[in-house]
Design brief:
about 75% helix; mainly alpha; about 500 residues; single chain
């Protein structure tokens, strides 16, 4: 395990204790945030027939929900910065429950867009951001592992909800199922109750060792910010003395000048056009090939089962001393691997072929999901993460909103799912290559800046020593000037 790095949080994160209860709460909260929109795809074919709508129109249900979840990011981040994670998650659970109950009385597809999509989506936003943010306040050295365990909530919840939704539909229809799901999602309130604020009165532990890993060093922001430590400390002291404006306290706009943040944002905007659509259309694709409903739903369970085990494994690997210093390359590989999986999906034939695809896709999706927010925290630091994730999600809501409907439009136009998977593969592979190139450039620049910083510090130290020596020499000469020959003769 890499050594814990210095942090400018003003306290030492406990890296355990109640933090593991917080991870469990985040496990539940993140699980519902990501798995809920995917699990609802079980009802798509029946709702599509009920309201007589196209593939593209029914895809808007999950798309609007995911987009609302991402669009609500800045609002959620502001509330977390102001009130903390616990009350925000509690409010989010109540909102999702309300949206699902209202949706059960829906009379049109627009009604579902508003209730499931908008109300439910914003409720999920109030579950996602606080859960991601609070982990960074409890963990430092073990943060990749904690993030990996928390992100495992998504496949675990999806693995449970996929067959459960099919059973609920067969027993109660989609309206009765939505009512029951509304009560199930209230478990997010239980998760929120576990998110006790961290004790920040603990003083930082002194350290004589400089950070050796890129992931941990970002909390000190002396590496990936592109700012030398001396300048950064001066900058932070000036910011603290001014007290910061209210806007800066709620959301940090200065992140748009951060090189690593801009690289992450540019690649993710393209990536999210193909991120969710393959999951949203996996069960409908299987049904389109003539596979029965339960077997189609079981594909999501297989996908979730593989995803469930790969996420903590990815967190463990990402926390090793070999990977964490260059964890951005690991993330770039995960993005590219997703793209390759989607490009090869149309080659899968029959149910067995889809099972193989679900396994490899689960591996790829789990790796990417486990690293998605860890690498952002690695770039900007835990103290700026809340603002960063809010800004990222509001910008990403565009591709998240348009991705599944555009993919559904390809199915409507060509009457075949393979073109949709080809498009998603390109949308994932292109940013994966982009990330490899840009992170190589970023790491190179960071190494140069670090060397310059060390050289500047050494030069400053030498000048200080030289100045001290000159001052001592001057004082000695002045002292000797007062001692004359007369003084010696007198003696």
């Amino acid at each position: 395990m890499p050594p814990p790095a210095a942090t400018n949080l003003g306290y030492t994160p406990p890296d355990g204790g109640w933090g593991w209860a917080v991870v469990f709460g985040a496990f539940i909260s993140i699980g519902f945030s990501y798995a809920f929109p995917k699990s609802l795809t079980i009802y798509f074919k029946e709702i599509q027939e009920y309201f007589s709508v196209s593939y593209s129109q029914i895809a808007w249900v999950s798309s609007v929900m995911l987009a609302s979840m991402y669009a609500g990011g800045p609002i959620s981040s502001m509330l977390v910065n102001r009130y903390g994670s616990r009350p925000v998650v509690l409010a989010g659970g109540i909102m999702v429950c309300t949206g699902m109950v209202l949706a059960s009385f829906g009379t049109s597809i627009i009604h579902l867009y508003l209730c499931v999509g908008v109300i439910g989506g914003f409720g999920l936003a109030f579950n996602l951001q606080p859960a991601l943010t609070i982990i960074g306040t409890y963990f430092q050295a073990k943060r990749p592992l904690a993030n990996g365990l928390a992100m495992t909530g998504s496949p675990v919840v999806l693995f449970t909800l996929a067959p459960l939704n099919q059973f609920l539909f067969d027993s109660f229809g989609w309206r009765g199922s939505f009512l029951i799901l509304g009560s199930i999602v209230m478990n997010c309130c239980v998760a929120g109750a576990l998110m006790r604020p961290v004790n920040k009165r603990v003083k930082p532990k002194p350290t004589n060792e400089s950070p050796k890993c890129n992931g941990g060093a970002e909390e000190a922001e002396t590496v990936n910010t592109g700012t030398p430590p001396a300048n950064l400390l001066n900058e932070e002291s000036q910011t603290a003395s001014k007290g910061q404006s209210n806007v800066h306290k709620l959301i940090d706009i200065s992140l748009f000048k951060h090189r690593g943040f801009l690289i992450y944002l540019a690649g993710n905007v393209i990536m999210f056009f193909g991120f969710f659509a393959p999951v949203v259309f996996l069960a409908p694709y299987a049904k389109h090939l003539g596979i029965d409903e339960y077997s189609a739903a079981f594909l999501l369970s297989i996908f979730a089962l593989v995803d469930m085990f790969i996420r903590p494994a990815t967190g463990f690997i990402g926390n090793t001393k070999w990977v964490r210093p260059r964890i951005q390359y690991f993330f770039s590989f995960a993005v590219s691997y997703n793209g390759v999986c989607h490009l090869l999906c149309p080659l899968a034939s029959g149910y067995l072929g889809l099972v193989v695809y679900a396994v490899f896709f689960g591996l790829a999706f789990g790796m990417l999901s486990a690293l998605l927010f860890e690498v952002l925290m690695d770039l900007v630091g835990a103290n700026r993460f809340s603002s960063a994730v809010g800004l990222v999600t509001i910008i990403e809501c565009g591709p998240v909103l348009l991705g599944p409907p555009l993919s559904g439009a390809l199915v409507d136009i060509f009457g075949d799912y393979k073109y949709m998977y080809y498009a998603c593969g390109v949308f994932m592979l292109a940013p994966g290559i982009f990330f490899f190139i840009m992170h190589y450039y970023n790491y190179k620049k960071l190494d140069e800046e670090q060397r310059q910083s060390v050289a500047t510090e050494m030069k400053t130290s030498e000048e200080t020593v030289k100045l001290k020596m000159n001052q001592d020499e001057k004082e000695w000469m002045e002292l000797m000037g007062k001692v004359t020959d007369k003084d010696f003769i007198g003696v």
